[in-house]
Write a structure and sequence with these properties.
The chain is an alpha+beta fold and 172 residues long. The protein is 24% helix and 26% strand. InterPro entries: ATP-grasp, PRibGlycinamid_synth_ATP-grasp, PRibGlycinamide_synth, PRibGlycinamide_synth_C-dom, PRibGlycinamide_synth_C_sf, PRibGlycinamide_synth_CS, Rudment_hybrid_motif.
Length: 172
Amino acid sequence: MAAEGCKFVGVLYAGLMIEKKSGLPKLIEYNVRFGDPECQVLMMRLESDLAQVLLSACQGELQNVSLSWSSEMAMVVVMASQGYPGSYIKGTVIKNLDKAEQVSPAVKIFHAGTALDGDGNLVAVGGRVLGVTAKGKDIEEARERAYDAVDAVDWPEGFFRRDIGWRALRHS
């Protein structure tokens, strides 16, 4: 950004793919969206006051900020509308999020594609709808908590993958 003459202050996420042959990283995307699962999982580990960090960034005072991170591992499982990434039905009712977050104090559900309908029901209005996120002492505990919370959500028209974190578990 500096080489392009564009001042940038904020969060920049770099999505990397590791080449199988060389083991070298390749940049496949970059973005700055706080609604993405890549950011949600980081927010679970951030112990610093995010509002203060953002205010310092706006005021040009990031040199005065020291970020504090939890040593725990975190993992996010995305719950999406059936049919995503293709066409999907909007307006399906999602229940039991309170029960899902009660699985553990280390569980947080981020909303990415939800709204309240006229009757006060929580409904899906997007493709990627929920980021069910959990922390744990290791990746296995974080994964178990996240999937326990996912299993508590009552949303027949939603789906998720059961293979999240399998590579990390294989290598731990």
